[in-house]
User: Fold this.
Amino acid sequence: MHHAGPVTGADNELIDRLLSLIDQAPAYEPMWWMNYGALAAVNVACNVPRPGGDAGRVQFVSDLRDRIEHLVDRGAAEDFLVRALRREIDDFAGKRADVGERNQQAERVRDHLKEVIENSGAREAWRDRMARRIPAFAEMPDDRLIAEAQRMLEGSPLTAPATAEDAASAWASSEAWLDASKEVLGDHVIERWRHLSIQRQMDT
Assistant:
């Protein structure tokens, strides 16, 4: 269920709301949690999710929560961080409905991953770029890096061309995400949380 109750201004409330949007597996898109969660994970340097059924989903959402809460504990403003993540995912969701753009992007990603597999210079640049978000990549040997690129090339939704069924699903998913995002975590919700959070701090 989406977390759409009254805003209270409590600590981690916006994080709860964001994760309630991500932690879904509707019948028309069972990997919703991975498709939308991966973007949040990359932006907070959390491990990118992999298919793994309910157990993989539960572990990923738990890891993502821990990472976001850690950043807030270290000084990131909860409203600023969550708003930034929501906007990134909103932008991704909007573009998913554009099948032509999706196919062009998938082709660019496939070409890049092929270059990573075949070219040591491209591989080193990819390692450095990925390590900024996922530190484990910095120490990853070439054979594992190639295997990771191959896995993404063959199994990532970012590299798969869209079928007619994909297009219908992407449109439904895009609309569903954007509607829920506006209701559960729209700017008006975040501003209300910020006001109540400040008020709670003043009262203690």
About this structure: The chain has a mean pLDDT of 89.
